[in-house]
Design a protein that fits this description.
InterPro entries: LpqE-like, Lxx211020-like, PCuAC_sf. The chain is mainly β and about 160 residues long. It is about 0% helix and about 45% strand. It contains no helices and 12 strands. Strands 1, 2, 3, 4, 5, 6, 7, 8, 9 and 10 form a 10-stranded mixed sheet that branches. It has a two-stranded antiparallel sheet with strand order 11-12.
Length: about 160
């Protein structure tokens, strides 16, 4: 199919995000970025990351998104500048994530903690609309007292 990471290899990796399909467009790993130092607060702008894979015969475009938990949702470049729609060519993975174009929930209307769920509606030119219940990625904090092995985490902040 071309999209990697959508199946299970038997490991314990649990990727963040909601997965869905609208028309021929696969949606993977849709989630609000991990809050940096505590929850996203009212008035903050929170990054929203998602991957798309268009299985259709014709290109599509992500035109925008909306949610009730933010004043607006913009499609932005890596530097945060507002940009136009995102082209979804056929047979190619398009990753909207940190360091690339992504969605930005502007001026949050409420606090969002890691693990909270919110509804976001994505709007496509050809595939139409889909409402997803997505979560804010749960922060991981390294508990250095737990082990000498890197990468093991504790759910509580120290």
């Amino acid at each position: 199919m071309g999209a990697t990471g959508c199946g299970s290899d038997g490991g314990d990796y649990n990727p963040p995000g909601a997965n869905a399909r609208v028309g021929p467009v696969l949606i993977r790993y849709a989630h609000i970025a991990e809050p940096p130092d505590g929850p996203w607060e009212q008035g903050d702008d929170a990054p929203f990351y998602v991957w798309f894979f268009n299985q259709g015969q014709e290109p599509d475009r992500l035109l925008g998104a909306e949610t009730t938990v933010a004043r607006s949702v913009d499609i932005v470049d890596a530097d945060g500048a507002v940009r136009g729609p995102v082209v979804l060519p056929t047979g190619k993975l398009v990753e909207l994530e940190k360091g690339r174009a992504h969605l930005l929930l502007r001026d949050l209307r409420q606090q969002i903690r890691g693990g909270d769920y919110v509804w976001v509606t994505l709007r496509f030119e050809r595939a139409g609309e889909i409402a997803l219940q997505v979560h804010s990625q749960v922060p991981t904090y390294v508990d250095e007292d737990a082990t000498d092995a890197p990468g093991l985490t504790s759910p509580s902040a120290q």
